[in-house]
Structures are given as C-alpha cells and as structure tokens.
Amino acid sequence: MATRSSAPPTYALPPIAAPASSSGGGGSSGAGRGLTEGDRASVAGFRLELARSGRPTRAELLRGCVRLNEVTPSDRRTALTGAMKSWARQYEVETPGIVRATDVRITLSSRDELFADVALYAPADGRCAEVADRLTGPRLQGPPTVVIGVAETDRGRDLSDRIDALREGGVTEFVLAGARGGLQWFRLDDDPLRPGRGGGYLKSAALPGLWLPEAVLAPDPSKVDVVAAVRAGCGTLDHALFVNGLCNGTGRKAR
C-alpha cells in the first residue's frame, strides 16, 4: 500500500493571466485555466480559479485535490439536507453564543477548503470566524465545533481523507448523513467524551443539547420533528450550564 504524503502539494493551478490591456484602469483579469476534477492546487490557487469559473459553492479542495461535487442530489438527499439545516437552525435559536452557517466553505489549512451543508461554532472562542472573501464570497476561517454534511452515502470515496482534514484542522465533531441510509457521527479530538444515544436520540458531546432523532433516516426526513428533538435536548441542565458558560466566558465552552 502506498504511503500517503503529508507534505502540502505544489501550487499546480496557474495564476490568472494578466489583462491584455490596462487602459482605462480597473478591468478584470484574463481567463485562467479553470477548475477540473482532480486538479492539484493550493487553497490560494483554488480560490482564484473558483472566482473565475463561477463554479457552484459545493466545489472544494480536499488534501490539495479539487472536488467539484456537481452530481445532482436525489429528492431524498434534498429532504434530508433540509431536515439537518432545520435541526441546526433550532439549536442556534436555543443556544445564545452559537452561530450557524449553511452551504459554506471552510478553510482549514493551505490545502483544505471544504464545503459543509451546515457548520456550528462559537465566535467567542476565537477558533472560527466568518470572513468576507472578495473573490468567492463569505467563508469560514478556522475550525467550527461541529460540521454537518449530507451525501448520497455516508461511506463515500473521500471519507478517510475528509476525516483526516477535519481532524487536523481542529474540528471537534463531524456528522455525515447518507441519503441512502446510514449516519456517522465522529468525535475527532482526543477528548474521551463521545457522542451518545438514548431515548431515540443521537446526542452531541461537544455541544450539549444538540440532539438528533434517530428517525431522521426514515424514508421521508421532512416528516421528522427535528425541532422537538432540539428543544428536548436544550431543556436539560447540561445545556443550561453550557449556555451560562458561553455567555459569561466561564465554565464549559464549545470545543
């Protein structure tokens, strides 16, 4: 088995060409090479070409390799994505100090800028922040506490690389829901506290009260009451203490 290199890849995408004429001032730069699935690049090169190509926001750079993610999602995947976004939105409502971002790319290193359907983070801890990128629009810089992804399957070809990138980038938990069935919830740091289950819920260890009903993997996720699950989780003493710590800057914080 070949050994995976840990060295950042060489800058492979060429810089955007200089404009043919600078008369009149301003003007946009010339066309670049464009993005192709499997290209090797740095985050800087990826962003430049992404801005020029007008690619959809799902495009990403994983371990220095371009992934365009252009497959049209199935109806069930669309419904499952909607359910997961509603779930995270309710947690943001119930948890002052936690912010939700959707359909967002997250810069984790010089070779990893990953797409997430949803991310949850605490701006006050200084680990993750939204930045206004003039080339490609808003993105997150640094690791969110929880990253949530929805795919056709929860065991995709890039799963091991994705987990490595998220772990090395400092993300605490990763939730991957598959439209064909299956859900994996990973704790990525060395904390012994793991995501758990009970009473029909899957429960975050990093964000107290973030409870997900196991029924979300039912044939029609849109009929599953994810809001009630979050309200139940956020009615616990553990969640109250967590929010108190976030608001006062003391005690247990998102990690």
Automatic annotation (TrEMBL):
Residues 23-35 have a biased composition (Gly residues). Residues 1-37 are annotated as: Disordered. It comes from the Bacteria. This is Uncharacterized protein.
